[in-house]
Write a structure and sequence with these properties.
Layout: H1 31-52
């Protein structure tokens, strides 16, 4: 078996990207809900425009 030398990984964004693990106060929404609400509003406005246009 041949032994492979592992190369060092490059630095990720030089420390510019930080993830915070602290919980913050506020509402917790799933991404599906965030996409569904505006989509529903757009759909309702289109339906209203079709049925109530002069």
């Amino acid at each position: 078996m041949s032994s492979k030398k592992s190369a060092p990984l490059p630095a990720s964004s030089a420390g510019l990207l930080r993830f915070f693990e602290d919980e913050t106060k506020g509402y917790k929404l799933k991404p599906e809900v965030v996409i569904a609400i505006p989509s529903a509003l757009i759909g309702i406005s289109w339906i209203l425009k079709i049925f109530f246009s002069p």
